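Reopening this ticket.

The earlier resolution said the output was attached, but the attachment link was broken on my side. Pasting everything inline this time so it's all in one place.
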Amino acid sequence: MILLWGRISSINVRKVVFALQLLELPFERKDAGGAFGVVRTPQYLAHNPNALVPLLDDAGHTLWESNVIVRYLAARQGSALLPTALRQRFDAERWMDWQQTTLNVAGREAFIQLVRTPPAQRRPDLLAQSVAATEPLWDLLDAQLAQQAFVAGDAMSVADIPLACEMHRWRGLPLPWQERPHLDRWWERMRSLPAAAGVLDLPLS
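Inline output:
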């Protein structure tokens, strides 16, 4: 049995849950992080010194960093989600890194301001900066999806998992959405997957 530590309100935990469900791998998830605590205990820190979620325990083999866990699970199963062709694989990995280092960084403050900050304490300037930084990135992804059905090709790959979770977070914010036909088509396809249940249909918190 695979054990996953992390609260489902975390985008990074949702990535791993989505991957596990896509791969039809049985797992148990235990709440950790935020109000649940756990992550500062000596036992947890021994496996994840960053005191963050998620933490995956696969029969004693532990991993942290959500996108790495997604790739590990796909490789573990020999899944087509992890392309075997060298260039396609690293194209997929490039988009995964882009999600983590660029798109997530740009959009995170809007989420913090609109979901996790009390209205009286919100900073409109920080919200506006986050929106201004994020909107062009959705245009970039829309242009990528104009060329193919999924982010890294005509078949779904590990790249689609974190980006779908990022889209779920952004589309859950009370912000106007500019129609982007290719991105919207991809998003509807992703959220309609059976494995998306309990991940891409959750309210933000």
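Reporter confirms the inline version is readable. The beta strands are 2-5, 27-30, 55-58, 61-64. Helices lie at 11-22, 42-45, 66-76, 86-115, 124-145, 160-171, 181-191.
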